[in-house]
Request: fold
Amino acid sequence: MKAYQEPNVIIYCGHALTELPALPPESVDCVMTSPPYWGLRTYKTESQIWGENHCEHEWESHNKKWHSGTNAGKVQLGDKGAFHNDFSNQSSFCLKCHAWRGELGLEPTIELYISHLVQIFDEVKRVLKKTGTCWVNIDDSYAGSGKGIGSDHGKAVFTDDDIIKLPAIDTPAKSLCLIPSRFALAMVEHGWILRNDIVWYKSNPMPESVKDRFTGTWEHLFFFVKSQRYWFEQQFEPVLLSSLEREKYGWNGAFKGRYTVPWEGREECKDQCYTNPLGRNKRDVWQINTEPTAQWHGIKNFATFPEKLCETPILSGCPSQICKKCGKARERIYERTGHVNKREPAHQPGNTQTKVDSTGWGPTERPTAEYTDCGCNAGFEPGVVLDPFCGSGTTLAVAKRLGRQCIGIDLNADYCKLAIKELQKISMPMEL
Reply:
């Protein structure tokens, strides 16, 4: 159900497996999302049926309880931001077709949780363009004992009342469940290509009252694509001063002075050096602080990630200009300059370089401020960013500021209202 629409922004209130099939195939350029983590919190949404939809289900209900042994591990009730020590959750299995009825993230086993995620991302793959990118933020959980002892002081888990046991039988109590790894393997088995496992390092992590392990300070951000050739714009980060200093010298330790790319206005590198003025290729460890939770009429979303975490995936994985006629995205133009191999000058015997610059070194490439043009003269439109678990709308807000189109889906009506409130604050897209 469409809950909100404005130019370049659409929000659907409903289940991802209901709303995604309504989207056209290969209509999305970039996906940036974070699904509910397993065994962490309830969002108090209506239970969904996972499995056979044509069966006249006969449900066998099991009343499962969340339990935590300390205040730090109290279960978060996602819709109101309240905490509860002993929260009961209803889940059911069909006696006929074995379908499961419940809330995503509250599955009785890790395997069932992963299978539900893969179901959703199979549909995401259908709507993603061949040139599209998919970014998924997900974190791990700790296994409980299944005897009411509780979680690992910060990761709430189910306890065993009846038949269904948590965690999975092959995971010892107090052990990490390796959910991100299991999810990544399942995605690759379903045809996704995993390009990066990015570390989101939080220098201001949530305190944990544990004494027998170290405090967790990072989460996974997986970078998937569906084909080997996809749209990607290289991102850069500042070069360390130590690297600039080393760049002045040749491989034998003596100053060479043959590098031809100047660093204008950089006091720390007064001599000319080869290093790219735009910086170095961005690394896969991103230090980004957490941000305060969004709130509307007393409603809080405790599962928000910071806007900074969305910026790089959208800038690098979603084109800002796509031809309205042929659908081809504009790409940054690179110029050939400098050299390729510092170790072996082009004029040395055995070197196969055929084109060299004035310094005797072969060419390399540097990005420029110019972009390709398909020649259709039909105008351009921004790429589309999708978040199938949009929550309070962080991904949508960043996409709108960066001048992209965006689509959000969330099952929680209160979160959809919160996302709409945040989006309405953004009047103009950010200039690119």
